[in-house]
Amino acid sequence: MAGTGYVYCARVGKLVVIEGLDGAGKRTLATGLTAALNAEGRSVASHAFPRYGISVHADLVRDALYGKVGDLSDSVYGMAVLYALDRRGAADEIRKDLEEHDVVLLDRYVASNAAYNAARLHQDENGEFVEWVRALEIDRFGLPVPDLHLLLRVPVEVAAERAAKREQDDDTRTRDLYESDGSLQSRCGIVYDGLARTGWLAPWQVVDGRTDVDFSKLLAPLFTP
């Protein structure tokens, strides 16, 4: 991409993104997928967004979500830019991992920005905000495009119960402004469904978060000649 300063090398690995509501079980799915891929002899690199404790932009997001940065959290576009800058800061590392590993597995990525903030604006997958996120993160920032999205779908009530239990069991995982807003979570789930239905950015597979996952079948299309 001219003018970005990036040097693009041959891409070997597959970029797989896990998306879903807070409390859907994304971390558990990532752990299971990594173990299954390793058992098949495939190397995996993993990243989770936001990169709290690593990226200044992610830490500003966290502060805003807990009401520590004045009215910053009220700005949908301001928050979206912070999320995007966090990912931009990780882009070179993701590209390097794609050169060196069979799979790069991401817990949240560009679609999270599109889904949550479109939901905050009461827009759907066809709204102007989703297109704005794509133009910002993919076109302007040059982030790698996923090969596959895995949408971990669970009812909003189930996700909320899991998030509440996580909060109860771990005092470092207090629910933030978004996680505690049931209406936002519900609208976000609808946007996620729309993104999956339209194949936004890349193919999507929907995974039922209430049942056991057949890991061997989930990623098989990525490695089929």
TrEMBL record:
Annotated keywords: ATP-binding, Kinase, Nucleotide biosynthesis, Nucleotide-binding, Transferase
Family: Belongs to the thymidylate kinase family.
Domain of life: Bacteria
Protein name according to UniProt: Thymidylate kinase
Reactions it catalyzes: dTMP + ATP = dTDP + ADP
Spans traversing the lipid bilayer: none
Domain Thymidylate kinase-like: 18-174
Coiled coil: none
